Amino acid sequence: MTSEVEDHGPAPDPTPGTGVAAGPVEAKETAGGSGSSEGYQRGLGGRQIQMIAIGGAIGTGLFLGAGKSIHKAGPSIILAYLVAGAVIYVIMRALGELLMYRPVSGSFSEYARELLGPYWGFVTGWTYWLFWVVTGITEVTAAATYVNYWWDIAPWISALVFTVALYGINLISVKLFGELEFWFSMVKVTAIIGMILIGLGVITLGFSQAGDTASFANLYQHDGIFPKGVGGTLMTLQIVMFSFLAVELVGVTAGEASDPAKALPRAIKTVPWRIALFYIGSLIVILSVVSWTAFEPGTSPFVAAFQKIGLPAGAGIVNFVVLTAALSSCNSGMYSTGRMLRDLALNGQGPRVFTRLSRTGLPFLGTTVSAALMMVGVWINYEWPSKAFDYVVSFATISGMWAWIMILFSQLRYRAKADRGELPRSEFRMPGAPWTGIAALAFIFLVIGLMAFDKDARVSLYAAPIWAALLTGSYYVIKRRTPHVFEKQR
């Protein structure tokens, strides 16, 4: 690990049309990947990009949060994931079109800056940074509690060890980060596929303790598909959307992908079958093996299924997988926060010191500051253990969905400009645009509106305006002091 840093800061005046300051590091890049990589090393191969994309769609929201969703909605939760999954695919295709137009590490923050205006890029960059900080706070603390399943260790000790270890890995090389994410994702994928195969065996062959009651009829026999009504299903959409947060992380890897023009579209094209297998497939099998009436909000549906089948090691296996999912999320958070801070600094919208890279091409200082803030979260969760998770999850959901909103609006503006010949056309166009993008935006705003009816999620709606006011004030202060930073994009 090395902490030597080199100043890759911007020159005073921005390069017209790119939104990125001119200097040693140039963000302008073509879809063919022949441009610069903003000073980063292109150390992420196609295999790693694929697994980062897969792993981004599988997190603790599925392994733990689905239990709460099932309790609230019953079998109709499958339909909720199906509809939400279709929206996620539209978002990813919109992101893919933008990435093939210009693959940069700043991703949706950079696109919002160029296509919607500097204010929106500023807000998006800082909001996505905050999203990963608060997510990291939740995940590293959760990981510490999972360790207590095997060993009686003070949570703060485990949290400290995990944070320092992941921080160190993120400072060695991007290739090591990608390799770690590859194996984290492999564990999650293997666990889900194993659960599906075992569950299908129980349903079709009738073996194990669950053999007598396991049946696809469990999906509709107990008060129907909508046992809590359509309203109950709608109220689970916030949790469902939280399960998909981080699927957009593949966009942040664009500046460090070895072959973005090939790897990124391939990863995005696999989104439908990933959602069909990991979410729809696993939930159909689990709810067939175990009736939805047996689930409790704090119980993992995977644990409940293994217990019903009668596998004594099932709970331990799921605990290990959930630990892996939490560490994977925290690892991704450290990766993305450092790059978001550097992108903001390159555009004069953050402290210049964050533009510096280590000798191995890594954003050392941005990652360090973000990791330090994640450690503060250990104390927060210690002080308010009962409600901290719900509050952070709801705030993470609304801040993560902000990134999706900006992706969709940016794609709408980009497509209009490309159709008019003002910008080059992307080779990876979103199908059904602009109507698919408009429908996805309507769905996201519906979810945000429904959050007002959930007492825990409502907290994030109170916090969001405060955060927006803070960012808006900061924007105008910076604009007044350095007006050239926010010159209108051309």
TrEMBL record:
Residues 49-482 form the Amino acid permease/ SLC12A domain. Residues 1-39 are annotated as: Disordered. It is found in: Cell membrane. The keyword Transmembrane helix applies. Keywords: Amino-acid transport, Cell membrane, Membrane, Transmembrane, Transmembrane helix, Transport. It is a multi-pass membrane protein. The chain crosses the membrane at residues 51-70, 76-95, 116-134, 154-177, 189-210, 275-295, 315-335, 362-382, 388-412, 433-453, 459-478. Residues 1-10 have a biased composition (Basic and acidic residues). InterPro entries: AA-permease/SLC12A_dom, Amino_acid_permease_CS. PANTHER family: GABA PERMEASE, L-ASPARAGINE PERMEASE. Belongs to the amino acid-polyamine-organocation (APC) superfamily. Amino acid transporter (AAT) (TC 2.A.3.1) family. This is Amino acid permease. It comes from Streptomyces oryzae.
